[in-house]
Amino acid sequence: MVQTKTEISRRKFLKSSSGVALFIGVSGILPQLISCKDPKKIKEQLAQQPLTAWVKLSEDGLITIYNPAAEMGQGSMTSLPLIFAEEMDADWSMVKVEFSPQESEIYGSPGWAPGSKLMFTVGSRTTNSYYQVMRKAGAQARYVLMSSAAKHWEVPIEELTTSNSHVLHGKTNQKISYGALVPFLEMPETLPDFSEAQLKNPKDFQLVGKDIPRTEIPAKVDGSAMFAIDIRLPGMVYGVLERGKLHGSKPSLTNENEILAMEGVLKIIPLDYAIGIVAKNLEQALNAKQSLKIDWSESKASGHNSQEVYSTYEKIASQKEKGKVIIEIGDVAKAKRTAAKTYEVDYKNDYVYHAQMEPLNAVVQVAEDGGSAEVWVGSQQGTDTKLGVPKILGIASEKVNVHLQYLGGGFGRRSMNDFVEECAILAKEMAPLPVKLIWTREDDVTYGAFRPLSLQRLTVNTDPEGNITAFSHAVVGDGGNLVASAVANDHYDIPNQFAEWREASNGIRLKHWRAVGHGPNKFAIESMLDEIAWKQGTDPLELRRKLMAKAPRALATLEKAAEISQWNTPSVEGRAKGMAFVEHGSLGTGVCEISIDRSTGNILVHHFWIALDAGVVVQPDNVKAQMEGGIIMGISSVLKEQITIVDGQVQQSNYHDYNLLRMQEIPESIETVILESSEIPEGVGETATPMVACAIANAFLKLTGKPLRHLPFSPERVLQALNS
Questions:
Q1: Per CATH, the architecture of 228-298+360-438 is what?
Q2: Tens digit of pLDDT for each residue in 176-204?
Q3: Strands 166-169 and 174-177
Q4: C-alpha span between 568 and 575 (Å, rounded)
Q5: Residue 258: closest CA among 242, 277, 271
Q6: Could you write out the three-class secondary structure of 15-40?
Q7: How far is it, in rounded angstroms, from Cα 372 to Cα 200?
Q8: Dihedral through CA 674, CA 566, CA 549, CA 517, nearest 10?
Q9: Nearest to residue 265, comparing CAs of 293, 237, 295?
Q10: Are 210 and 83 within 8 A, CB to CB?
Q11: What are the CA-CA distances from residue 713 to residues 310, 353, 590, 593, 630 (Å)?
Q12: Burial level of 198, CB count in 10 A (0-12/13-18/19+)?
């Protein structure tokens, strides 16, 4: 049998002896009520589409709610069902949560863009984009229950209320549980398309905003949670790929017969950029991989040296021709001509690797006739919920069934389909045997898809009173939005702003990395503000107060962060505080306190304080956990992490030379204060990480009078700054 996490299947659903599924859909899908005691009707429904219910209700009161988002530790397995349960007035102790089918037409969120329906767990948009979807679906499920109870009791629906999985009729003092209503459930002739005003008033929330334990944590603690790497299928074989160290290079295998003769090797499958091996077990596959003799071609990345390329980027930033204009507000050229003072600084950041805990992997089984496939994977989903497999196999999308599993870390890396597509290529050759493809850590480091290396040139103009009148930002690097996002200063009152992207491509694989462009670009912007304040002899807090005068929500986070960090109280000798403001869905101001070992160049972060406005907060304790994780990941990337490339080849290969923050190096405390807001939920997973680099750099400037302008702040760079 397939060893997977318990999930509802069509067969199991059809065999249910009791219960109903409320087919409460979105985006034009009509609601339907299907009794599990009417198999003919169920078969008719399921013949049209896969199981598409948001919720299943059983006579014993068990409520199964389907989660459409990936669960990679950020809490979507709780937050989205919790929103649904809130509007349904469900007894949370009777709720079970399962992954929904990967069918975007049914479970996709319209919150990404007008007309789109995507299942895409990226960008800290999950709760934000599904908030209204889940509220409305939950309210519709509640309405079906109330309508059925009204008909059963022969009373007006307006006289009914609900509470904790019960429908109540106050006039007759009648009460019936949701489970007991199952035999009497009927779909009403019309189902309200609830408006915001018709949904529950947030002041009446019983679940949203409370500290509810996460649903998946017990299984993760006791080891029963299934990740894709845990999947075992009968007859399963194992695949690995040798991709080389030069991105985009093409391989020529020179010892094919020798490899095929090795124990357990079943097949060699060449790809444009790699050599694939399928063997009976993983050890045999890896042994064969180590014995491959390959001639590699040159590629676009040949000759690229990551530490030498900045001189080229500086020349690109100095060119008179503009790049792609991203922001143009006011008249920057005029402000420059009339400026009393001009500040110009370059900030740099090296490549960074995702370092997700679970190695990339997938399992794909292609039917013997090649006409269908099953996929088991931990994925952040994407614009194609079938993850590119239909195109690889040349079959219709509906013939591919994706079983989403827990993810052992994503951070943007698992929003790529490359590892799933590779597995599909191998599985196509091995059908009907299921194939598990595993990337080793060395594979993922050397052939990673990194946060881009970039240079940001900032030019800021001030008037005679020291007020910032113009702010120009030129980003040089590869990757478009990967480097050019987050250059806006929407919460700062600066009358003239200009931002542009100047492309510089080096053939290196790139991908979204937690917070994408916010990390490098907010580092540059917020560090620049402190450098200006330092030269003007102004408190960075006062500078930001003035700039935020017309942005009250942002200003509130600034004031609260200053309060909880005791900004105006001097630090003990040898320490200093730095601050930074970031908007990434949520608005947040962070303050850190650091010290420096001036003999080694090591920076130690002692405390971090955060004031956060995240709109409606569904799970407060989880939001704080997200901020803590984001801060620690930020410190790791800022002080430790660095991918270097020499002659096009990645120099790091595993954690012995790609350094991560260690337990003894984490702050003594990370304090998060959540500010109340009546807005919709905003993303929190990517707000904390970008504030770390600038907060540390600003604390360093305050402590030493020296700027740090190149990420990461390695001991060597710190010593160089101290001695400059």
A1: 2-Layer Sandwich (3.30)
A2: 999 999 889 888 877 788 999 999 999 99
A3: antiparallel
A4: 14
A5: 277
A6: HCCCCEEEECCCCCCCCEEEECCCHH
A7: 44
A8: -60
A9: 237
A10: no
A11: 16, 16, 19, 16, 18
A12: exposed
Distance CA 12, CA 8 (A): 6
DSSP 60-81: TS-EEEEE-S--SSSSHHHHHH
Residue in 350, 309, 313, 334 with CA at minimum distance from that of residue 472: 334
CA distances for 542 relative to 14, 148, 705, angstroms: 65, 60, 18
* Cross-strand partners of 259: none
Tokens of 574: 């040898």
- For 72, 639, 710, 712, the CA distances from 642, given in Å and listed in that order, are 24, 9, 11, 7
Task: Tell me the fold of 10-222.
Answer: Aldehyde Oxidoreductase; domain 4 (3.30.365)
For the whole prediction, is pTM greater than 0.85? Answer: yes
Determine the Cα–Cα distance for residues 621 and 609; give it in Å rounded to an integer: 16
Residues 6+ apart with CB under 8 A from 47: none
pLDDT at 22: 56
Sign of the Cα torsion 334, 336, 341, 343 reads positive
Three-state DSSP state, 381: strand
Question: pLDDT tens digits, residue range 199-243?
Answer: 999 999 999 999 999 999 999 999 999 999 999 999 999 999 999
Number of Cβ within 10 Å of residue 197's Cβ equals: 6
Residues 458 and 345 sit within 8 Å (Cβ to Cβ): yes
Radius of gyration in angstroms for the set of CA atoms belonging to the chain, rounded to a whole number: 28
CATH 3.30.365.10 placement within the chain: 10-222, 228-298+360-438, 310-351+450-722
Q: Which CATH architecture has domain 310-351+450-722?
A: 2-Layer Sandwich (3.30)
C-alpha 350/C-alpha 358 separation (Å) is: 24
Instruction: Supply the angle between the helices 689-704 and 518-536 in degrees, to the nearest 10.
Output: 30
Cβ neighbours for 361, distance < 8 A, ≥ 6 positions apart: 228, 229, 377, 378, 419, 436, 437, 438, 439
CA dihedral 30, 34, 39, 43 (to 10 degrees): 20
**Backbone angles phi and psi of 437, in degrees to 5:** -100, 130
- Six-digit token pair at 434? 């299921």
For residue 160, the 8-state DSSP code is E
Q: Of 34-38, 172-176, 521-525, which gets the smallest average pLDDT? A: 34-38
Residue 438's nearest CA partner among 450, 426, 430 is 426
Q: How high does pLDDT run on average in the chain?
A: 92
pLDDT digits (tens, 9 = 90+) for 432-488: 999 999 999 999 999 999 999 999 999 999 999 999 999 999 999 999 999 999 999
Q: Report, in this order, helix, strand and coil percent for the chain, each rounded to 5.
A: 35, 25, 40
Q: Who's near 372: CB < 8 A, 6+ residues apart?
A: 366, 395, 399, 400, 401
Numbers of helices and strands, H then E, in the chain:
21, 31
Q: Which H helix or E strand runs over 582?
A: strand 575-584
Angle between helices 126-153 and 76-88 (to 10 degrees): 30
Task: State the Cα–Cα distance between residues 513 and 661, nearest whole angstrom.
Answer: 17
| pLDDT over 90 at 261, yes or no | yes
What CA–CA distance (Å, rounded) separates 134 from 115? 18
Strands 496-503 and 468-477: parallel
d(CA 458, CA 573): 32
